[in-house]
C-alpha cells in the first residue's frame, strides 16, 4: 500500500492540568473519509488545530505525503494542501463570495487583484464538486449552508487535498446536512482525502470509511464503518453503555395551554399562521419541522418575547392577550431557548447571575440583590443537575455546551414549572448530555409538567413526545399520537402533506 | 504565537495591571522627553512637584480632577451598558449654562442650602435631556448614538456660545462673551480656604462610591450589565431593555451635566466657551483607563489631572512643551488597553 497522504504520529498536547491529546496517532489515505468521533472535550478540535498549525504539540509530529510539517505554521499546512472548514466560519459577512475566497491568497504588494482568473478558477471548482454558489453574492445574505459551501470552496481554492471539517453539521438542517455528505463522498471519489469531526453516530456511520474514536484525549478505538454498529460506537465514545431514557405511558391531565387560530407577525411577516394546539399537564407535545418554518416564533410567543397578532391563547383556562417574559416566568412557564449562547446566557456574567436573571424579583429586596441567596440557588442547581466545570461565581461562558444546557434546564425545572417550552433542547450536545437532558424532560413530565418540545430531531421527538404536530410554513398540522408516528408519516407531515388526514385529529 | 482566553483572572494580575500600564507609558514618554533634550527622571520629578509640590498645586490638581471624575463616571456608566455616550462635552456645557441662567434669572435670591441642591439637580437634568434625545432616536429609529451624541456636542457648545453672546451676556464683562455670574449663594463651599478646591470633589467621590455599589449590588446594576453584554439574552431573561437604557442615559447624562454645574458653581462662577478644556472627551479616556470601574474612575481622574497640572509646572521648569501631558495620558490609555487585554488573554506558543 502506498504512503498515506496524512500521518499524525504520537501527538500529545497539554493545557495546564488537562492532557488534551495523549499520544494520538492517525493516518489518512488518498480518497478516504475518516470520521473523528468523540464527545465534547475529547480532544478532537485540539488535534485538528495541531494538524493545521494553530497549536504546537508538546510532542509528536504531522507528516503530509511522508514529509514532516513544521509545527505551528498554518501557512505551511495550507501549502502542504490541508484545508480547514471551521465550525464557526472564518469569513467576512460584508464581502462577496469571490472576495472571501480570494482573501489571503494574493500578495498584499500586488498592484491589482486577479479577479477574472480567480472567478474562473472558483467557478471551475464549484462546477467540479457540485458546490453551487453565486460568486458575487454578499456572504451575509447567504444561508448558513451556503456559507459553509463557501468555506469549503475557499479551502479547495487554496489547492487543498486534505480537507478537515470541524462539526460540519452542527449548524445545518437535516436536508442541508444530507446534501453536504453527498458532496463529501463525491469529493473523496475524486481523490480528495477528508477528516470530519463529529459526535453524531448517524452521520459518522453513513459517511465515513473509517472511524477513529477519541475519549478523554486518547485514541480509544478505530473501526471500519462496515464492521461496527451505532451501539458499539456509542459505548466506545462515552466509555460505558449509554441508553437514552424511555418514555413510559402516562395519563395526561387538564389542558394547561391552548391556542386557537393564533397568528404571530414578526418584522411584518406572519411567522405563525392561525395555529391551533392544546397542551395537557403531564404530556409532551412534540413540534417537528425543518428549521425556519415558524418554530422560533412559536417559542418566542410562549416565552414572552413575541406578541400575538390575532387569535386566542388560553393559559390555565384564562385568556391571555399579551404574555411578557415576567408573566411567563411568574405563571410557571419554564423556557429552554433554542440558542443557549445568544438567548439563554450572558456569557460574561457569573453562573449565579445567569441563574437568577429571569427571576431577579424573587432574589432581591427594595432593588438590592441578595447575592448570598443567588449563590445558594446556583449551587443547588449545580448539585441537583450535575453541572460540571464551574462554581456559582465563575463566568458561565466557561461551561461546555452540555453543562450550560444543564444549568439552563436546572434554573427552569428546579421550581417545578407547570409548563416547559423546550426549543431544540439537545441540539449540539454529545450523547451523554443528550441522555441527561432527555431524562430531565421525562422527569418533569412524570411530575405533571406540560412540555412543548420543539425539535428538528425526529428520533428525539419520537422518543419523548406523546403527541406530535408538524410545523410547515407557519402552519401546524393536526396532532397525531406517537404510536401512529413512523419516520415516513412524519416526513410527509413535515412536507406539509396532512390535508385529508384531519379526521385523525385528537 | 497565539492568544488564549484566560479561564481565571488572578487577583494580583488585575491589581498590578494598571500600575504596569502606567509605568510602561511613562517609560515610552521618557524616550520623547530624552529626545527633547531633558533629563527624564528630573522631568518626572518636576511633574510630581508641579502637581503636588505646594499647597496651591495640590489643591489645583484636585480641583482639576473633579470634573474629570464626573465625566469619567458618566462615560463608564454608559459604556457598561453599551450605550456609547460620546456627548459628555455637550451635556457638561448644557448643565453649566442651565445653572448660570437659573441662578442669575430664577432662583438667585434663594439661600445656599436650597439654591445649591436645586441648581445641581437642574444642571444634571439638563445633561439628561441632551442624552435622552439621541437615546430616543436609537430606540425608535436605530440611529447610532455615537454619531448623534458626538454631533450634539457641537450643537450644544454653539448654542451656549450664542446664549452668552446674546441674552445671557454679562454686560459688565467688557464685551467678552461671558455669561452672567451665578449668585454668591450658589457657589459651592470651599474645602480649603484660599484655594479653588470645593465641595464638588466630595460630591464626585461620593457619587463614585454610590455607583460602585449600585452596579454590583442592585437589580438595576445586574440588568444594565446584562443589557450591555448581551442585549438579546437580556430580553429573553425579561430585562426591560428600553427602560434600562433610559435609566442609564439619565445617570450618564446627569453626571456629565453635573460636571458642568459643579465647574461653574465651584470654580468659575460664570460660563465661557473655554469653561471645559475637553473634560467631556477626557472623561471617556478616564473611564477607559479605569476599565469602566467607578472606583477606578476616581484614581484615573486623579492621575489624568496630575499629568495635566504637573506637566504645566514641568514645562515651566524644564522648557519642554506641556503637550507631553497629552502624550503621557494618551500612551497610558494605549498601554492600559493592552494591559487589560493581557488580563483576559495569555500568550501561548
From TrEMBL, chain A:
One of its GO terms (cellular component) is plasma membrane. It is a peripheral membrane protein. SMART domains: AAA. Keywords: ATP-binding, Cell membrane, Membrane, Nucleotide-binding, Plasmid, Repeat, Sugar transport, Translocase, Transport. Its main location: membrane. GO terms for molecular function: ATP binding; ATP hydrolysis activity. Residues 6-241, 257-498 form the ABC transporter domain. It is found in: Cell membrane. It comes from the Bacteria. InterPro entries: AAA+_ATPase (IPR003593), ABC_carbohydrate_import_ATPase (IPR050107), ABC_transporter-like_ATP-bd (IPR003439), ABC_transporter-like_CS (IPR017871), P-loop_NTPase (IPR027417). Belongs to the ABC transporter superfamily. This is ABC transporter ATP-binding protein. It comes from Shinella sumterensis.
